């Protein structure tokens, strides 16, 4: 068994990690680009993952300088296409089991996503009982353990900056991690080391490691087949969250699968 830090709290990315949204992003973007005779490859997409909407759009279109499409026009078209498909996205394998397990054992958990709040609501409403009620979504008297891109707007340009993970730990989970990358105190460093980040994107892996946390990388097979381009190496790489073994990280091992959320209807 690998020697891993003993984890006390867990931070989850959302898109492509908890729910299968990456196929939607690819489909809608390539539908928009098709009339211009170009398409977004996985090499391009890999560099966009984890970035906030405006920055990702500008970067995407920079690969196609000859097409007459502004970032604002692209975002408007993409929003229409995606809004049609979000209500049908499904959890990725192993996700409901892991979330329910951590909640049962009272392990603090939080979602930290670059998605806008409006998009988060469209993606998550139909998955309330399976996943998001465990993060307090729609549970009366419970603080919602979700950080969206809007919550950190103007404070970060998105991953690979570590800010959103530090913000989620500090502001949502009340962990004393501080909010800067430089000159980290020993106390803050120790608290950061107790956190485990789950990510599917290389910029997210970078952000988690720069935050001083351990990172489990669960990439799309297309991304896994490419040469790894990050400066920081994930602590564990899995093909699916189904492969995750909580006990290797000092977390309670799986027992029975918890179904439903007590007190939530």
UniProtKB/TrEMBL annotation:
Gene Ontology MF annotations: phosphatase activity
Domain of life: Eukaryota
InterPro entries: HAD-like_sf, HAD_sf, PGP-like_dom2
Gene3D superfamilies named among the record's database cross-references: HAD superfamily/HAD-like (3.40.50.1000), Putative phosphatase, domain 2 (1.10.150.240)
UniProt name for this protein: HAD-like protein
Organism: Boletus edulis BED1
């Amino acid at each position: 068994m690998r020697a891993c830090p003993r984890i006390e709290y867990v931070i989850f990315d959302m898109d492509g990690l908890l729910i299968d949204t990456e196929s939607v992003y690819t489909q809608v973007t390539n539908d928009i680009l098709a009339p211009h005779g170009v398409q977004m490859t996985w090499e391009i997409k890999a560099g966009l993952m984890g970035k906030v909407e405006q920055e990702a759009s500008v970067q995407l279109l920079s690969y196609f300088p000859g097409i007459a499409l502004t970032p604002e026009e692209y975002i408007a078209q993409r929003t229409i296409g995606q809004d049609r498909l979000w209500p049908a996205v499904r959890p990725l394998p192993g996700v409901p089991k892991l979330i329910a397990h951590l909640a049962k054992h009272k392990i603090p958990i939080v979602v930290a996503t670059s998605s806008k709040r409006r998009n988060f609501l469209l993606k998550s409403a139909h998955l309330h009982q399976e996943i998001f009620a465990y993060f307090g979504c729609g549970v009366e008297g419970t603080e919602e353990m979700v950080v969206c891109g809007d919550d950190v707007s103007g404070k970060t340009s998105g991953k690979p900056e570590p800010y959103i993970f530090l913000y989620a730990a500090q502001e949502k989970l009340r962990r004393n991690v501080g909010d800067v990358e430089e000159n980290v105190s020993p106390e803050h460093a120790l608290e950061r080391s107790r956190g485990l980040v789950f990510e599917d994107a290389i910029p997210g892996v970078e952000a988690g490691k720069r935050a001083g946390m351990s990172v489990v990388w669960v990439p799309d097979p297309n991304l896994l087949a490419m040469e790894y381009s990050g400066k920081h190496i994930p602590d564990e790489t899995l093909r699916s969250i189904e492969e995750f073994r909580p006990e290797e990280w000092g977390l309670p091992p799986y027992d029975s699968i918890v179904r439903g959320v007590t007190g939530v209807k």
